[in-house]
Structures are given as C-alpha cells and as structure tokens.
Design goal:
The structure is a single chain. The chain is an all-alpha fold. It has a domain at about 10-40. It is about 55% helix and about 0% strand. The longest helix has 19 residues, at about 10-30. The protein is flat, with a radius of gyration of 15 Å. The mean pLDDT is about 85.
C-alpha cells in the first residue's frame, strides 16, 4: 500500500481502506457486507493486466 507523505497517519490509511471497501460494495450492488459476501467474485489478475490498469504518468 502506498504511504502518502502528506497523510502518513493510521487514520488516513483506515479511511483509504474503508473507501475501497465502499467502492467495491457499490460495484457489486451490495448494501452491506453480508450482501457483498454473497455477490463478490474473486478473480486472478495477471501481471500484464495489473500493469495495464495503472495510471499513466502523462496523458496519451
């Protein structure tokens, strides 16, 4: 996990993680963690797919 020098505290990390969980629930259409558990599908991502999904340092 990337540690932002401007926001190095534990509270910031927890906020970032919980924002990711909320986002995942939204993508799955789940209103709570129990629904997310039922709807979530776990897949394996290749190194090439991971690299493709990373942000670019400059625009196209």
């Amino acid at each position: 996990m990337y540690l932002d020098p401007q926001r190095p505290g534990v509270e910031d990390l927890i906020d970032q993680i919980s924002a990711g969980v909320r986002s995942s629930c939204t993508y799955a259409g789940a209103a709570n963690l129990a629904e997310f558990h039922e709807r979530a599908v776990v897949g394996i991502q290749s190194a090439a797919g991971y690299h493709e999904g990373r942000p670019l340092s400059s625009s196209w």
